[in-house]
TrEMBL record:
Belongs to the peptidase M20A family. N-acetyldiaminopimelate deacetylase subfamily. Mn(2+) binds at C96, H98, E130, H156, H350. Pfam families: M20_dimer, Peptidase_M20. One of its GO terms (molecular function) is metal ion binding. The active site is at D71, E130. Catalyzes the conversion of N-acetyl-diaminopimelate to diaminopimelate and acetate. It is an enzyme of class 3 (hydrolase). Pathway: Amino-acid biosynthesis; L-lysine biosynthesis via DAP pathway; LL-2,6-diaminopimelate from (S)-tetrahydrodipicolinate (acetylase route): step 3/3. Residues 176-258 form the Peptidase M20 dimerisation domain. It comes from the Bacteria. This is N-acetyldiaminopimelate deacetylase. Its cofactor is Mn(2+). InterPro entries: AcetylDAP_deacetylase (IPR023905), Amidohydrolase (IPR017439), Bact_exopeptidase_dim_dom (IPR036264), Peptidase_M20 (IPR002933), Peptidase_M20_dimer (IPR011650).
Amino acid sequence: MMSELNPFIKIRRDLHQIPEIGLLEFKTHAYLMDYITALPQEYLEIIEWETAIIVRVRGKVGAKTIGWRTDIDGLPVSEETGLPFKSIHPNQMHACGHDVHMSIALGLLTYFSEHQGQNHLVFLFQPAEENASGGKLLYDAGVLDAWMPDEFYALHVQPNLKVGQIGTKVGTLFAGTCTIQAKFSGKSGHAAYPHEANDMIVAASQFVNQIQTIISRNVDPIEGAVITLGTFHAGTTGNIISGEASLTGTIRTLTPEMSRLMQERVRQVAHGIEQSYQCQVELILEQGGYYPVVNTEKETTALIDFMKDHSKVDFISSPTAMTGEDFGYLLDKTPGAMFWLGVDSPYGLHHSMMSPKEEAIPLAIEVLEAFLTMKIN
Ligand SMILES: CC(=O)N[C@@H](CCC[C@H](N)C(=O)O)C(=O)O
C-alpha cells in the first residue's frame, strides 16, 4: 500500500505548480487565504495588503511578538525538472524554493492555530522577494506597524546542504544588492557599412568587460564583491548593426561603503563608454530594500544553541554568502536571524532543474514548532 503524502508536501506541490512573479502573486495569495481561513480562527487575526498576508496568533499575555517570515514569489525561469507537479505557468518557476518556505510557514501556522502561547506570533507571507523588495514596500506602507515583531526569523532553502543540516552565523549572512539597468543608444545600419552606423553591441560589450575590472582592480580582495549581468538584449538579425542594447544585472557588496564605491565606478565606466563610442548610456542603479542580512548576536546565538541541541539537526557554521534577501531590510528594523535549511539539490538556486528534497519540509516544521514554542513561552 502506498503511504499517504505528508499534507505540507502536498501543499508544496500545489504551490509549485502556480509560481508567480513578485507583486503578481494573485493565485498564490488566494491559495494561502483559502488554507488560512479554513484553520481554527479562535486565536487568529488576518491582514491582507496587496498580495501579502499577515497573520497574528494572539498570545495569552502578549507581552511581546515573535515574527516568522516567508516569501511567496517565483522567478522568470522555464522549469526543466520534468516533475509531475512542475509549473503550469510558462516561464515562471519556484526556482528559489519559496514554495518550500510557504509550506513550512503553513505547517507552523497550522500547529500554532491550535497551540496558543504566552506571547504573540506573527506570520508574514511576503511578496516580491526576488524583484521589488516586498518586505520594504509593506514595512514602509506601515502594514506591520501594529504587529511589528520584537524578534523576526526566516529561513532560506540551501541546495548545497543535506536534509537535516541547518546553517547560519552571527553577523552578515547575505550581501546587500543594487540592481543595474543600462540602455545603450547609437545608430543602426547595414552590416556591410559599419562606418555609417554606431554599433551598440560593441559598446555594450565593452561596458560588460570593463565593469568586471571593478572587481579585480577597485575592490579590496579581502572584502570581495560581485557584479553579475544577467540579461543582454540587442539586435534583430545577423546582417543589421544594432543601434540599441540593454543590460540588467546586480551588484553585491557586504558594506554600504563598498556599494557606493562600486556604483560610482559603474557610472564612470558608463560615462567613458559614452565618450569613446559616441553614444548615450541611460544607467539606473537601484538599492531598494536589499540591505545586507545581518543576524543580531543575541537572537542568533540563541538560535544556534537551540539547533545544536536538537537531535534532528546537524548544525553547520555557515560562511557569508553573496546572495541577497530583502529580509535584511526587516532585520535592520528589529533583531532576529535568517538561516539556511538544507534541501540537497544537485542544481542550485535559480536553476531550471532546482529540486529540493521534500523530506526537509516536515523536518523543518517539527524543529521550528519547538523553536517558536520556546520563543513565545
Ligand atoms: C535568495 C536569493 O536568491 N535572493 C535574490 C534576491 C535578488 C535581489 C535583487 N532583486 C537583485 O537582483 O539584486 C538573489 O538574487 O540573491
